[in-house]
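At this stage, I put together a protein sequence along with its fold in token form, as given directly below:
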Amino acid sequence: MKSNFLKNMVPIAVAVLGTAGAFVTTSMQKADSAAPQLGYVLDDNDICNVPVQCSTDINPICKHSDGQTAYGYDAQGNCNVTLFQPSN
């Protein structure tokens, strides 16, 4: 009786552990996503200096609460790098 129970339960236990492992791996990959990055929108003087919390992860384009698209600075100091909404 015990032998039949083990023969039936081992495949089920392996499947459950495999499924749990897949979920854990997926969670770890999301936790390793890019760090938040500041983006900027134009102020009233058309200067790119109003900070907005953005990300480099591919998501919808990062926007300020007023609807303006936020950009990051490139190596030359131009405010034209596309940033994305943080993943939360």
